[in-house]
Amino acid sequence: MSEPQTHFRTDEGAVAQILDCDIAIVGAGPAGLAAGEAAAGTGARVILLDTFAAPGGQYSMQPTQGDSPFTDTPAVRLAREATARLAARGVQILTRAEVFHAAKRQDGSFRLAVSQQGAARVIRAGAVIAATGAMERPLPFPGWTLPGVIGAGAAQRLLKTGTGSLGPQGKTVLAGSGPFLFAVAQTFAKAGAPLDHLVEMRRPGVREALGLFLAHPSRLPEALRLMADLKASRARRHSGHMVTRALGTTCLEAVEIAPLGPDGQPGMAAARVLDGVGTLAIGYGFQPVVDLTTQLGADHGHDPALGGFYCQTGADGGTSLAGLYAAGETCGLGGANPARLSGRIAGLSAARGLGFAAAPDETAIKALRRARDFAARLAALWPAPQRLPLSLPPDELICRCEDVRVTDIRAAIQDGAREAMAVKLWTRAGMGPCQGRICGAGLSAVLEEAGVTAIAAGYNRAHLPLRPTPIGIVRAAMASGEWDI
Amino acid sequence: MQRQQVQPPGEAGVIILGGGVIGLSLALALAEAGLRPLLIEARSFGGAVTAGSLAGIGVHMHGMAEFHLMTEACRLWRDLAAKVGNPFEYNPQGQIGFILDQEGMESGEAWVAEESALGAPCRLLTPAQLREIEPGLTGPVLGATWAPDSATVNPFFAARTLLRLAREAGALAFEHCPAAALLSQGGRITGVRLANGQEIRADHTILAAGPWSQEIAAPAGVMVPLRPRQAQCLVGLRQPPGTIRHVVSAVERRGGVDAGYTQIQQSVNGQILFNTVITPVDSGAAGRDRINEVPASFVTSSIDMLVRLFPALADLVLLRSWVRFEAVSPDARFMAGRLAPEGLWICAGDNGSGYCRALMLGRYLAGEISGNSRAGLAPDLVAQARALYAPARFSQQAA
Ligand SMILES: Cc1cc2nc3c(=O)[nH]c(=O)nc-3n(C[C@H](O)[C@H](O)[C@H](O)COP(=O)(O)OP(=O)(O)OC[C@H]3O[C@@H](n4cnc5c(N)ncnc54)[C@H](O)[C@@H]3O)c2cc1C
Ligand SMILES: Cc1cc2nc3c(=O)[nH]c(=O)nc-3n(C[C@H](O)[C@H](O)[C@H](O)COP(=O)(O)OP(=O)(O)OC[C@H]3O[C@@H](n4cnc5c(N)ncnc54)[C@H](O)[C@@H]3O)c2cc1C
Predict the structure, then answer these.
(1) Most buried among A234, A253, A470, B21, by the most CB within 10 A?
(2) What's the first-to-final CA gap in chain A, in angstroms?
(3) How far is CA A196 from CA A181, A185, A276, A280, in A?
């Protein structure tokens, strides 16, 4: 075949910039920042990169406006100070930088392909730490695709960064399950945004809460602050309720809620409608972001209390793939504390693995065990629903990208698609731009309903590109000559 | 629909190992021949190379020896789509073979001359004629071949439809049910043992497990000369309908797929599927079970060719890539027919275009196994198929 010439309008002959380091850390949330600080402290050359505009991740999300009420919260300050320390140690921080491909070479080193504001970079690293965090786990319910219905995490991000606004008209309802709802309510209070209703599936009893804080007294002040802020928001609290429908013709107008019976099913006889609603922020929990670690082929486990499939690590933060470490919520949900601690542990281990002098931090290892215990107890108080909390009407959308409905998925399962991959093939659910990030939980919930467990359903292993990426950037990275194993 | 049984029966007339498009087509044809076949699939039906396919259905550039068999293969897909209301997006969109240089021009002219002599409606296009047919293809081409009768199907929906039809016709089919070994007795293959230990007796056992066929056969002392070859594809975000109107492929050199190829097409939901291979990756046997990433050189050559032909797609956003394994035989043709031990058959060795041939091969073997000529191909085609696909052609070579 004749030599193909390139005719790039955007990118003629462009080849990615190559960046060298000992340790590349993907994700600059609490885990990535702590990993960077620990690794850089041993003398290792570190690159820390993140898709967001500033380090901080979800927990320490940085506001974009100077006059934001979030400029000086402890969480925001934490990331700002950590970033300054990292910069002082010579850590190279790449922001608005997304890893879209990764490979381990036969010589044991890694390559990461990065898309950063229209340019391609290739990172050469001796070790990689995946600190990619978690993402929302949207569960479908009737009306969930109406404009005005958003994820609780997305609502929080809008408020924290100040980059957008919630529905201008009508009341705001926050709903779902888990302690995260209180953090979001706190964000509402802090942002001065009104919150009218809080609808929570479960409210742990006093005795349960007591058990938790007797075991972890140091966490009590934080919890009391959350409760105080929730009260200050003056939101009406509907405990033991769930949203059964979002109502509206072209956009959200009202929300139907119902109390949950002892069987966990909503009692529709007692359902009622909250009128005049402009925004429904709803969250049934999170799931670890495992695209980088599944692409590289590390082992993953499944645990509903950890958010579903998570990257397995040993006590040193190492995954099943030598040289690849994971920290923070990539290894399972747990919040900022375990993220910071596991980040520190992974940072030290990765450096030690490359021959830098770094003794294991036994205190951090012990503290991580405790922090994870707290997270596990918390998760046990608010178990994330695995199945659809209520039966969906057959024509409800599951996959918005490819327009796939519940009935299509049930039919495919009935025809013999007994794993997530097969359902995807036979229905196209998950083949659109989101690649299953939005519909994945809904799809496994329908499989669960048919008796296929999440483990049997399996996970979609990620491939090039981990996130949609312009072909000019992909080409520039792949043409670098760095990928010939 | 009949209720699905939970466990395979202990006995079957015919057992098919492998539920890709080949195994599914066999199940349908054998069921229609009245044999109630049993289909056994290791994972999900049509999840292996069948799910990675561009599923082009056409005779163009497949060589003269198979011309009539390929014509029949295409007709069977067209008829099936018409008969069942086309639930698998059968789309007779036509195929363009673009020509970039003088050597390609000679190949294109030769293909068109030979095929049209046998009655195919293909012809050569000037660049101006090409522009009418495929307006987005504005790259520097010298001309093109045009096969207006080539089609595509949706590979997932077609596999699903075949499974449904086969079951309706009486086939039993089980997924997540890998076969572990062939059973033999007195030199005869008498069935199969599943990985879960269950044994199933059968008069006839068919290997239809693509590049895995060899490893099922080897412990029984049967050598199947197939090697896995990595094949891959890229897909870009949905574009407006009509961005690419036809299957766009490179005019194939006489060396076949191993001399490199290009295939570009737009799926019914608008995504842009594209691949250009300059030198195929020969992966060892172990490659088959790993899920590999696409090679970097494949990514760059595929992007370069796409943008060279369709410059307006220079800003396309890549959505996904995938890798699969095809089974390649020494002469790049299927092995379809009896193997040496009594009771054992094979239908594998797709060489990268098994989707097109699947229904034809299913009927061919249904006729051979059932002895019912109405279930099989027409007698002249049967004779051609025996001559072309007989697995024995390799054992003679080896001896
Ligand atoms: C939407 C949301 C809101 C949350 N709000 C709170 C809250 O208010 N309070 C609280 O205590 N906890 C909150 N959490 C929990 C939070 O995840 C943890 O507290 C903590 O942030 C976990 O730290 P981490 O470092 O593991 O992950 P994160 O903080 O999530 O950081 C991961 C980082 O990795 C980056 N990243 C991922 N993939 C790539 C890639 N391929 N290339 C480049 N960068 C990448 C992301 O942009 C992100 O910045 C929230 C979680 C989510 C998902
Ligand atoms: C990118 C790409 C483009 C293509 N384009 C075209 C095209 O345009 N036109 C065309 O005609 N063809 C095309 N093909 C080729 C076509 O997809 C294949 O020829 C065809 O799918 C082969 O089907 P199969 O059933 O033989 O193989 P497979 O689909 O691989 O089926 C074999 C099955 O056997 C199963 N199996 C394995 N071991 C066992 C066991 N121990 N027990 C039970 N089951 C087992 C496997 O799980 C698998 O499902 C393309 C392929 C690719 C990858």
Answers:
(1) B21
(2) 24
(3) 13, 10, 11, 10
What's the length of chain A? 485
User: Which residue does chain A place closest to B256, by CA atoms?
Assistant: A1
Distances in whole angstroms, Cα of residue A394 to Cα of each of A141, A391, A405, A411, A430: 11, 9, 7, 10, 18
Distance CA B160, CA B143 (A): 38
Is any Cβ of chain A less than 8 angstroms from the Cβ of B239?
no
Q: How near does any CA of chain B get to the CA of A103, in Å?
A: 9
B318 - beta bridge partners? A469, B236
Is A447 in contact with A460 (CB distance < 8 Å)? no
Give the residue from chain A lying closest to B305, CA to CA.
A4
The ligand whose atoms approach the alpha carbon of B155 most closely is 2
Q: What is the pTM of this model?
A: 0.94
Check if the beta carbon of residue B59 is closer than 8 Å to that of residue B115: yes
In 10 A of CB A353, how many CB atoms?
Answer: 19
Q: What pLDDT band is residue B358 in, cutting at 50, 70 and 90?
A: very high
What pLDDT score does A10 carry? 42
Report the gap between the CA of B118 and the closest CA in chain A (Å). Answer: 28
- The residue whose C-alpha atom lies closest to atom 46 belonging to ligand 1 is A27
- When the pLDDT of each residue in chain A is averaged and rounded to a whole number, the result is 91
CA dihedral A214, A218, A224, A230 (to 10 degrees): -110
Angle at A202 between CA A368 and CA A388, to 5 degrees: 95
CB atoms within 10 A of CB A363: 10
- φ/ψ of A310, rounded to 5, equals -135, 160
Is residue B253 less than 8 Å (CB to CB) from chain A?
yes
CB A306 within 8 A of CB A332: yes
Is ipTM beyond 0.85?
Answer: yes
Quick one: average pLDDT of B158-171? 98
- Ranges of beta strands (E only) in A117-261 are 119-130, 134-136, 149-151, 171-176, 197-200, 236-239, 241-247, 254-259
pLDDT digits (tens, 9 = 90+) for B282-334: 555 555 555 578 989 999 999 999 999 999 999 999 999 999 999 999 999 99
| CA-based nearest residue to B230, from B301, B155, B279, B280 | B280
pLDDT of residue A484: 76
One DSSP character per residue, B60-85 reads TTS-STTHHHHHHHHHHHHHHHHHTT
Residue with the smallest CA separation from ligand 2 atom 25 is B20
- Chain A closest CA to B282's CA: distance in Å? 15
Q: How many angstroms separate the CA atoms of A363 and B211, rounded?
A: 52
Mean pLDDT of B47-73: 96
**Nearest chain B Cα to A418, which residue?**
B44
Q: What is the pLDDT of residues A328-348, one digit of tens each?
A: 999 999 999 999 999 999 999
What does the pLDDT average to over A120-124?
A: 97
CA nearest ligand 2 atom 39, residue: B42
Q: What is the 3-state secondary structure (H, E, C) of A459-484?
A: CCCCCCCCCCEEHHHHHHHHCCCCCC
Interface check for A104 against chain B (CB to CB < 8 A): the answer is no
Ligand 2 centre to CA of B48 (Å) is: 5
CA angle in degrees (0–180, nearest 5) for B346-B352-B356:
80
Residues in chain B: 399
CA dihedral sign, ordered A67, A69, A72, A76 = negative
DSSP track, A129-154? EE---EEE-----TTTTSTTEEEHHH
Q: Are the C-beta atoms of residues B12 and B200 closer than 8 Å to each other?
A: yes
DSSP state of B390: -
Q: Would you call B295 an interface residue with chain A, using a CB distance cutoff of 8 Å?
A: yes
* B188-214 mean pLDDT: 97
Q: What pLDDT does residue B396 have?
A: 57
Q: Can you tell me which atom of ligand 2 is nearest the CA of B180?
A: 41
